[in-house]
Amino acid sequence: MRLVLKLGGSLLYDKDNQIISERIREYAQTLSQLVDNGHKMVVVVGGGKPARTFISAARELGASEAQCDWLGIKTARLNAELLSAALQDRVYPKIVETLDELETAWCTERIVLMGGLTPGQSTNAVAALASEIINADMLLNATNVDGVYDKDPREEGATKLDTILIDDLERILSGGGTRAGEYRLFDPVAIRVVKRSRIKTVIFDGKEPSNISKIVAGKMIGSIIIHKTSSVEE
Ligand code: UTP
Question: Is residue 53 assigned to a domain?
Answer without folding.
Answer: yes
